Structures are given as C-alpha cells and as structure tokens.
Amino acid sequence: MNDMSKEIHDLVMIGAGPAALSAAIYTTREDIDTVLYEKAVIGGLAAVTDLIDNYPGFFEGVTGLDLSEDLRKHAERFGADIRVGDVTSLFDEGKYKHLVTTDGDIYAKTVLIATGTAYKMLGCSGETDYYARGVHYCATCDGAFYRDKRLVVVGSGNSAVQESMFLTRFASHIDMLIRGDHLKASEVLIKDLKKHDKITVHLNTTTDEIIGENNQVTAVIGTDKLTGKKVTYPTDGVFVFVGLTPNTSFLQGSSVELNEYGFIETNEKLETNLMGVFAAGDVRASATMQIASAVGEGATAALKIREYLEDHKKKYPISERPEKSKVSV
Amino acid sequence: MVKNITVFTTDTCAYCVMVKRFLQVKGVEYEEINLDEHPERRNEAFALSGQLTVPVTVVTQHDNTKEIVVGYNLSRLAPTLA
Lengths: 329, 82
Prior knowledge:
The structure holds two protein chains of two kinds.
Chain A: E1 8-14, H1 18-29, E2 34-38, H2 44-47, E3 51-52, E4 62-63, H3 64-77, E5 81-84, E6 87-92, E7 97-101, E8 104-113, E9 117-119, E10 135-136, H4 139-142, E11 150-154, H5 158-167, E12 173-177, H6 187-193, E13 199-202, E14 205-213, E15 216-224, E16 230-234, E17 237-240, E18 244-246, E19 277-279, H7 291-315
Helix pairs in contact in A: 1-3, 1-7, 5-6
Chain B: E1 2-9, H1 14-25, E2 31-34, H2 42-49, E3 56-61, E4 66-70, H3 74-80
Parallel strand pairs in B: 1-2
Antiparallel strand pairs in B: 1-3, 3-4
C-alpha cells in the first residue's frame, strides 16, 4: 500500500482523558493534525469522579464530568478530531506508526499513548457473580440505585474516600473495609470523611466473600486481621476502589516497553523506547495519578511531539501530508 | 426500523453523557428518564436490564421488539440503530 492510499495523520492519540485532551489543545493550536481515539468515556476516570477538589483554578471544586466536558470543548475548539473507537494494535513501520482500530487501519507520524487506568477488581468470591447487580466500580453511575440502602465500600485511597462521601447522598449507612491499618487517602479527604456520620471505617479488615440471595447481594464476609475472626457486614451493594491497573493490554505484542505492572516506561521527554511513540498521564510508569499532573504531562508531550515532527519532516522531506490528512483513498 | 428510544440516566453518569452524545451525533431522537429526578422509575430500569446501573438504553423497533443495551456499549448500541 502506498502512502496516498493510507489515512495518515501527524499525530494519533490513544485515549481522550485529561493528558490527551491537554496535549491536543497544544498540538491543534499549532496546526498539528491530531486525531484522538477513545473507547470509553471522554475524560477517562476523571469523568466518572464525583468531585475534583484539587485541580488548580477551581477553588470551589469541579465535577469530573464538567471538567471533562470543558477539556473536550477546549480541544475541539482548535480542531481536535475525537473519535469513538478502540485501538487494538500498534506497529512501528519506520516512517509511520500503523494503528489497527475498530474503524480500520490508520497511520501516524507520531503517537501519544494516554490510555490511563481502570479500577482493579478485588478478586474475591462472589465479585463476578454480582457484577453490576450489587458489585460496582463507579459510584457516580450506580450510586442512585442505593437510596436509603446499606453499602460496603472496599478501599482506602483517595478514590475510596471520595466516592464513599459521594455515596452518602444515597445510602443510609456505609461500612468502609480497609485491609491495612490506616487510610491511604490525603489528609484533607480523611478530615472530610470524619464529618460523615453515615460512614464507619473498619481498619485491618479483609474482604473475603460477597454473598447474596435471590440474585441480590446481602452481605460481605471479611476477616478481622487483629483477631483472626470472620466478620459479616450486611449490605445491599458493594463499591470497589482498590487500586488502578493500566490500560495497556493492546500493547502486548508491540515493542513498547512496559514495567512489571504493565505501566509504560518513558524517559524525561515522555518518549517510550519506540521512537515517535510518547506516553503521558496515569498509564505512564511513575505517574502521580493526579489530573493536574496528567494535564502537565500532556502539555510536555505535545511540545516534545512538535520537536519530533520537525525532525520527522527533515528525515522524510518528501512526506507532505495529504490535504487535511483526514481521509484518503 | 427504530420506533423509539428511551435512555435511563442519572445526573452524574459520564457514560450516560456518551450514550446521549452518540445518539445526537446519529441524529436519533430519544426520551431521557433521569433517575435522580424520577427515583420511582429505578425498578423499571432494573427490570429491563437486570442490572443496577445506568445508562440503560431501550431501543424499540417498529415491530415492537426491544433491544436493551446496558452501559456505553457501542458494539451493541450501534447495530440497533441500523
């Protein structure tokens, strides 16, 4: 296939969360032809977060949904082409990177991977049996089904605390089960959590089994690590926030280097080991998992991508991009 | 042929926004039932989907057959509009 028969872009971003949208604002303002592929929600995990209270400039906090919408509008204002679809494979073919998507094959001079992370599953008995029918991973999506009901939240980090507080809008009571001996959330969130009398925190408590009757969750069985005794928490539903796993399964088989947990290794320019392929945001090894950091990394990646494209143009001087580079035959 | 579409949503659900945007882009009209405004209809959404989640999209065809799509699942939603 010659270049004229390919759909070629300057830059394809995989993901459309804060890192990618921030990068897209920068690249499209400089007339870099930019396409983003998002398989789930524009805004990524940020979009399903109830309240973001630590993003600079929003002194009263901002909902994840509103921030995501504004980032999307900002990127689209300058011409970012945000597409709904999944990138399933990435190949380096030298002059261009070859991306296999659910819409077909596309090519790019450079690629930014900003696929973020997803919430981990617990892996306990009953979790998959009651998936979305009593076991949930998105409070802003599913909390409304638990008005005046009892809930269990599993997890001790910022997400677990933030989402537990959100769920108090609906639930009559929440038991937070925490495996360790302390909450890992920020001090500010812990302070806020203590104001909620609907929430009871249970430290040193494992989550062993989710049980139910008649297709409905009725209880969580755990172990009190200090006494070794089994403990039962009657509940109508369970929300799980026990950490994040990188969305990098599509890179299996590619030559992009991942660390032992599946996060993408990068250098200080946010370059992966594959020349012309960059990574930014939560999917990157050593990421801080903060929206403000992701946005900053997006800006950094955009500037480094611009430099890369200048070099690419020198290396392949005949490679003029087709008219708008959107579609060719 | 699609007769009508109903989408069960909540105020805070990002996946609901994506479903609504997809239907808008396709130029398809739909009725939205916001469960925060109409909590009495939660059981209806659960009965249709068997799941305690939104979005739930009900696509009724002209022969009155119904397709129920749970979540933001384009591989299931898009064919129902064909």
